[in-house]
UniProtKB/TrEMBL annotation:
<feature type="binding site" description="axial binding residue">
    <location>
        <position position="191"/>
    </location>
    <ligand>
        <name>heme b</name>
    </ligand>
</feature>
<dbReference type="GO" id="GO:0020037">
    <property type="term" value="F:heme binding"/>
</dbReference>
<comment type="function">
    <text>Removal of H(2)O(2), oxidation of toxic reductants, biosynthesis and degradation of lignin, suberization, auxin catabolism, response to environmental stresses such as wounding, pathogen attack and oxidative stress.</text>
</comment>
<feature type="binding site">
    <location>
        <position position="192"/>
    </location>
    <ligand>
        <name>Ca(2+) 2</name>
    </ligand>
</feature>
<feature type="disulfide bond">
    <location>
        <begin position="67"/>
        <end position="72"/>
    </location>
</feature>
<dbReference type="InterPro" id="IPR019794">
    <property type="entry name" value="Peroxidases_AS"/>
</dbReference>
<feature type="domain" description="Plant heme peroxidase family profile">
    <location>
        <begin position="24"/>
        <end position="322"/>
    </location>
</feature>
<dbReference type="GO" id="GO:0005576">
    <property type="term" value="C:extracellular region"/>
</dbReference>
<dbReference type="GO" id="GO:0046872">
    <property type="term" value="F:metal ion binding"/>
</dbReference>
<keyword id="KW-1015">Disulfide bond</keyword>
<feature type="binding site">
    <location>
        <position position="245"/>
    </location>
    <ligand>
        <name>Ca(2+) 2</name>
    </ligand>
</feature>
<feature type="site" description="Transition state stabilizer">
    <location>
        <position position="61"/>
    </location>
</feature>
<keyword id="KW-0873">Pyrrolidone carboxylic acid</keyword>
<dbReference type="GO" id="GO:0006950">
    <property type="term" value="P:response to stress"/>
</dbReference>
<dbReference type="InterPro" id="IPR019793">
    <property type="entry name" value="Peroxidases_heam-ligand_BS"/>
</dbReference>
<feature type="binding site">
    <location>
        <position position="250"/>
    </location>
    <ligand>
        <name>Ca(2+) 2</name>
    </ligand>
</feature>
<dbReference type="GO" id="GO:0006979">
    <property type="term" value="P:response to oxidative stress"/>
</dbReference>
Amino acid sequence: MVAAIVAVVVAVVCLRLPAVARGQLQVGFYNTSCPNAESLVQQAVASAFANDSGIAAGLIRLHFHDCFVRGCDASVLLVSANGTAERDAAPNKPSLRGFEVIDAAKAAVEKSCARTVSCADIVAFAARDSINLTGQAAYQVPSGRRDGNFSLDQDALNNLPPPTFTAQQLVDRFANKTLTAEEMVILSGAHTVGRSFCSSFLARIWNNTTATVDTGLSPAYAALLQALCPSSPNAATTTAVDPTTPAVLDNNYYKLLSLNLGLFFSDNQLRTNATLNTSVNSFAANETLWKQKFVAAMVKMGNIEVLTGTQGEIRLNCSVVNNRSSVAAPEAQMARHYYSGSTASIEEIATS
Ligand code: HEM
Ligand SMILES: *[C@@H]1O[C@H](CO)[C@@H](O)[C@H](O)[C@H]1NC(C)=O
Ligand SMILES: *[C@@H]1O[C@H](CO)[C@@H](O)[C@H](O)[C@H]1NC(C)=O
Ligand SMILES: *[C@@H]1O[C@H](CO)[C@@H](O)[C@H](O)[C@H]1NC(C)=O
Ligand SMILES: *[C@@H]1O[C@H](CO)[C@@H](O)[C@H](O)[C@H]1NC(C)=O
Ligand SMILES: *[C@@H]1O[C@H](CO)[C@@H](O)[C@H](O)[C@H]1NC(C)=O
Ligand SMILES: *[C@@H]1O[C@H](CO)[C@@H](O)[C@H](O)[C@H]1NC(C)=O
Ligand SMILES: *[C@@H]1O[C@H](CO)[C@@H](O)[C@H](O)[C@H]1NC(C)=O
Ligand SMILES: *[C@@H]1O[C@H](CO)[C@@H](O)[C@H](O)[C@H]1NC(C)=O
Ligand SMILES: *[C@@H]1O[C@H](CO)[C@@H](O)[C@H](O)[C@H]1NC(C)=O
Ligand SMILES: *[C@@H]1O[C@H](CO)[C@@H](O)[C@H](O)[C@H]1NC(C)=O
Ligand SMILES: *[C@@H]1O[C@H](CO)[C@@H](O)[C@H](O)[C@H]1NC(C)=O
Ligand SMILES: *[C@@H]1O[C@H](CO)[C@@H](O)[C@H](O)[C@H]1NC(C)=O
């Protein structure tokens, strides 16, 4: 009886260990299979940044929007023939940017080592490189993610937090992705870089109701925003989320919150909530502390629901799932992957 139980326990442990090891990302996953992978991505990001420093913010957000929807599996990059992929959803279109940087990095990596480096890892590396370019020491990013085969606009709506969320709603959304309330506050500090279209704060400046405006938007700042964004604004107008230093990764975001200069209702929630504002105050007071925690939280975010081992695939073109005939033999033995929105997949599904 005891022996039987021991045998079962041993069997379970033996079965579980490799599964756990397989499921983990590793720093330097491409050390031998593609030693240049990370530096090629870094070069593509640096070159895009030299042309347009705003691209760094775009790439940081791209990783966030990838990870929160079906995990960090590059599903955010997939295009759909009928416009129903994640990237077509309102939180992503037209604001999400950096797709062409990922494509350039992927092209360079494919040239150096074909069919080896996932699009999901490229997105994760590019976010790290963007953080480095805007003012943080480079840090190691575990890799070995594999690419997903499905992307649906509704998933983006269901999982990405909108800027109208309350503290409780924000905490809940992040908790669903294994991130704590403190990590939500830490990651929101990414709003120290980048831009926003008017639509993300329009209701806040024009429909001043208790639902959309809290005590927390400086009247002078509101007047500036109203001048920039009339109630029917030019769809192309944007403004910096952190107007003091829009291309620098610093703790100004937290300092602005205390001055009633948080751009989104959601930003201001971090300050008006008594539980969350202790973190806000400590990051406003200590930039080193925030940066340390930011890097750790980014790495943790990069682990959300990842595909590893034989799951998923290494996409050849980051915008579309592989079709069977384009896939190398070892890949072809794995589960077939289709993406419902792509023309190639529709053909494949029809013939399978
Ligand atoms: C806490 C919940 C969050 C909400 C409600 C939120 C909302 C938003 C909104 C509405 C925008 C502007 C989109 C537009 O152009 O209209 C934005 C921009 C941005 N967000 Fe967030 N966000 C959140 C968390 C995060 C996180 C966790 C990150 C990354 C770690 C992040 C990084 C960024 C960046 C870098 C931009 C600027 C993008 C650019 O310039 O292209 N955000 N966010
Ligand atoms: C890759 O090399 C780096 C630096 O030597 C090392 O820290 C890392 O553990 C290696 N990773 C793997 C998976 O071999
Ligand atoms: C440079 O940045 C602009 C946007 O600021 C973009 O339209 C253009 O395509 C970029 N050029 C290159 C070569 O990346
Ligand atoms: C970016 O990373 C490089 C390489 O580690 C480092 O030399 C540089 O100082 C970093 N940039 C910043 C702003 O810390
Ligand atoms: C929580 O995350 C899971 C996995 O991504 C998703 O299926 C579910 O819809 C999410 N729930 C909420 C309430 O966001
Ligand atoms: C203001 O609120 C009304 C009613 O909810 C809505 O129809 C309108 O689009 C809002 N205006 C802005 C600028 O958000
Ligand atoms: C919202 O309304 C209140 C009360 O009328 C006012 O004090 C505040 O300045 C308004 N805020 C904005 C952003 O218009
Ligand atoms: C503050 O946020 C917490 C979640 O961290 C929530 O439980 C609480 O209800 C919020 N407090 C207020 C006054 O909204
Ligand atoms: C923190 O939140 C509490 C509750 O809303 C508020 O009384 C306090 O003034 C806030 N602290 C700061 C520094 O804003
Ligand atoms: C700021 O945070 C860093 C990192 O945690 C810590 O070493 C340092 O002592 C803190 N500085 C102050 C003034 O509290
Ligand atoms: C990748 O796929 C997209 C969408 O079908 C296509 O527009 C693009 O040209 C492809 N890129 C390459 C390098 O083949
Ligand atoms: C997509 O991938 C998932 C998980 O890897 C798999 O279960 C599913 O069958 C695939 N879908 C298609 C249509 O191949
Ligand atoms: C988009 O295409 C997919 C796959 O063909 C299909 O399942 C979906 O219903 C289509 N959506 C719309 C809105 O036509």
